[in-house]
């Protein structure tokens, strides 16, 4: 169990470093005129676009959630620590915004483990972490295409004797503005206050 845990954690760190390295090779992280805590990815990533199913089993696209600042995060419900830690932090971040700003932010949690993460299971999982979060998933080819779109990847470890397996994935959080334009890449080491500062600035910028 401990070996599988550390292998998963290593894979997550590796996937995140690969993503950040690919952005660095592209050039600068954009124009940092604003005092952002996250990395400015304006113009370095495509706009928010996907065709998946939500935790109610309905087909949805990126346009269905337009009008709000959106945070996109890849993970899976069986994740032992990285996913719940990140989602708890994001819930605290949005809950800590001024009341009139809280509904202006939405977290999109994309499960890359469709074999286990049914819509019903996703619904129970995301509901635990607050109201302003949507669970999404799809068929594996769709999920791989979406991950590739944002220069990351995911993979599955070999199942153990009980059929359990770990999933490697990026721990980065992508932030898009109301129009779906890519704006920021949030590293997992940022504090909740740093993320909140950036979200508030984006909300007020687009108001």
UniProtKB/TrEMBL annotation:
Disulfide topology:
79-83
Q: Provide the alphabetized UniProt keywords.
A: Copper, Disulfide bond, Metal-binding, Signal
Which Pfam families did the record assign? Answer: SCO1-SenC
Residues that, per the record, bind Cu cation: 79, 83, 169
The signal sequence is 1-30
Q: Name one GO molecular function term.
A: metal ion binding
Looking at the record, the residues that make up the Thioredoxin domain are: 41-207
Q: Which family does it belong to?
A: Belongs to the SCO1/2 family.
| Name used for this protein in its record | Protein SCO1/2
In its UniProt entry, the species of origin is given as Marinobacter nauticus
